[in-house]
Amino acid sequence: MRHKTRNLYTSLYCAQFLFLGVQLPFLPGWLDAKGLSVSTIGWLTGVALLFRLLLGPLIVYQGEKLQEQRLLLWVMTAAMAGGVAGMMLLPSLWGIAIAGTVMIWAFGCIVPLTDAAVLHADKAGLINYGRARGTGSFAFVVATVIGGMVITRFGDNAAIWWLLISAVALFGISLILPAVPRDEHATKKLSFKDASKLFRSPSFLLMLITVGLTQGSHATYYTFSELHWSHLGFSPTMIGVLWATGVVAEIVILFQGRWMTKRFGAVGLMLIGAVAATIRWPLTGLSPGLPVLIALQCLHAATFACTYLGSVAFLAKAVPSSLTATSMTIVASLGIGAMTGLGAVVVGQIFTREEPFISYGLMGVMAALAIVSALALAKRWDGGLIRTVG
Fold first, then answer.
1. I need a labelling partner for 84 at 20 to 30 A (CA). Which of 24, 103, 193, 324 fits?
2. What's the Rg (C-alpha) of the chain?
3. What is the maximum span of the chain, computed from C-alpha positions, in angstroms?
């Protein structure tokens, strides 16, 4: 049971990140080749993330109450695969935009569902969360490097075929996942009143703001780095290597997740991420040479991985296990999704390939505000269960 569960849930992460490793760096290039403007690409990304904001928490909250916890994962992976197929088959730009919105939204719901499922398996002693997540990140590296080489060889259309194959694989793996028994607190009947109490906690809100601002400050990078770096003369292969550099650094942190959490604590990790993002984005916007850019990409270990581990550590200590998936989805949608979505829409109006600094500079301002909220959280949170949730 343990061996099978570990392998299948790790495979779920791998398929998820094989998809993301091409979607994030290279989908904007495919959309650009299809004739969508920079502004439209920004709107597509932003609206999908904001749509996740509106419906994601409600969907996953309802999923927490299902007898069959895997059902929602099956539905979302099927919707994501359908979105990719729609992008390939629909002839109009509007059709492509709508299908792309469905795809990004569904994937955004899959992320917290997967995290919550693996955390339950971790608590049951069936899997190491940090190592499973780190293995998924390694799959992201494979996707960005090999995907970049494939796109260099066969053109932008190869990206959408990669997305379809990985989305279908993700759906297939979700169908054969073994169920993981939930603890006695997780089996208690949930009410909307219980979930709403999360928002009455100043500590939870400060965490949400901190993580949202830091992760949201990746908006320019996630949406337009390919267009920026292509303009500088980098091939898809080199762009894939740049993305892979950041994720390799991320993997190092994730594989040391338990030690990092013990050493720095949840708030300390969030603060490290915010400080690193304040440095990373303005310097990236200056379009430095390749050696400096590689060094800046290594800061992804802090801007993403430390922030991510900090949020997971906070939720593990501050939120009852019965609300694990709900709280993670709130962070992913209201925090990360909303901030990244709004950021993508805004930078879509101001980003240019020739002058990217304004867009990246705005991301640096967001990260600086995250430093302030992280410091406020450090003063308020006592390290235990948030008091408004019982």
1. 324
2. 20
3. 57
Q: What is the pLDDT of residue 57?
A: 61
140-151 per-position pLDDT tens digit? 889 999 999 999
Distance of alpha carbon 262 from alpha carbon 214, whole angstroms: 21
CA distances (Å), 313 to each of 100, 267, 310, 379, in order? 32, 9, 5, 17
CA atoms within 13 A on the CB side of 260: 28
- Counting Cβ atoms within 10 Å, is residue 176 exposed (0-12), middle (13-18) or buried (19+)? exposed
Average pLDDT over residues 59-68: 60
Residue 143 · residue 18 · CB < 8 Å: yes
Task: Give the pTM.
Answer: 0.78
Nearest to 44 by CA among 338, 337, 348, 336: 348
Residues 228 and 224: their CA atoms lie apart, in Å, by 6
- Does residue 332 have a pLDDT over 90? no
Region 66-93: what's the mean pLDDT? 86
> What does residue 125 show for φ and ψ, rounded to 5 degrees?
80, 20
Identify the CA nearest to 221 among candidates 138, 123, 309, 303.
Answer: 303
